[in-house]
Amino acid sequence: MKPIYVLNGPNLNRLGKREPSIYGATTLDEVEQICRATAGDRPIVFHQTNSEEKLIDLVHEAIDEGAGIIINPAAFTFTSLALLDALKMFEGPVIEFHISNIHKREPIYHRSYVSIRADAVMAGLGARGYATAVTAMLTMLADRA
């Protein structure tokens, strides 16, 4: 059974400490536990990187090895055409995920390149919303089977 890739971009390693009024107190380790518990028997490949290059390499790995991608690209959402191009090569479902509601934030956060490829976009559910994203991905994969 191919895994679901849960990919996290820059500064998400600081969850629980970084701007808790926006991102809450849940840590990235707790997010990983939530994802694994929600996925049940479906394997999860969970990564965080502050590097655009590494994030693209992980998408390339998912192209070859993964069933679906849940991606919180953080700031790369709004800047990376290279990430969009990599995601466009992935044939499975892609969920773009944001902890905060990016549309309630400053205008710079309103234009997502990743949304051009994403099959679904989730925003504003908080860190515990990753469970909702994993559940949605499981449904999307089952619908494709």
From TrEMBL:
SUPFAM superfamilies membership: Type II 3-dehydroquinate dehydratase (SSF52304)
Catalytic activity: 3-dehydroquinate = 3-dehydroshikimate + H2O
Marked site: Transition state stabilizer: R18
Residues annotated as binding substrate: N72, D85, I99, S100
Enzyme class: lyase
Molecular function terms, GO-annotated: 3-dehydroquinate dehydratase activity
GO-annotated biological processes: amino acid biosynthetic process; aromatic amino acid family biosynthetic process; chorismate biosynthetic process; quinate catabolic process
Family matches, as InterPro entries: DHquinase_II (IPR001874), DHquinase_II_CS (IPR018509), DHquinase_II_sf (IPR036441)
Keywords tagged on the record: Amino-acid biosynthesis, Aromatic amino acid biosynthesis, Lyase
Keyword Amino-acid biosynthesis on entry: yes
Leader peptide range in chain numbering: none
EC number in record: 4.2.1.10
Pathway field: Metabolic intermediate biosynthesis; chorismate biosynthesis; chorismate from D-erythrose 4-phosphate and phosphoenolpyruvate: step 3/7
Function: Catalyzes a trans-dehydration via an enolate intermediate.
Record-stated family: Belongs to the type-II 3-dehydroquinase family.
Protein name: 3-dehydroquinate dehydratase
Gene: aroQ
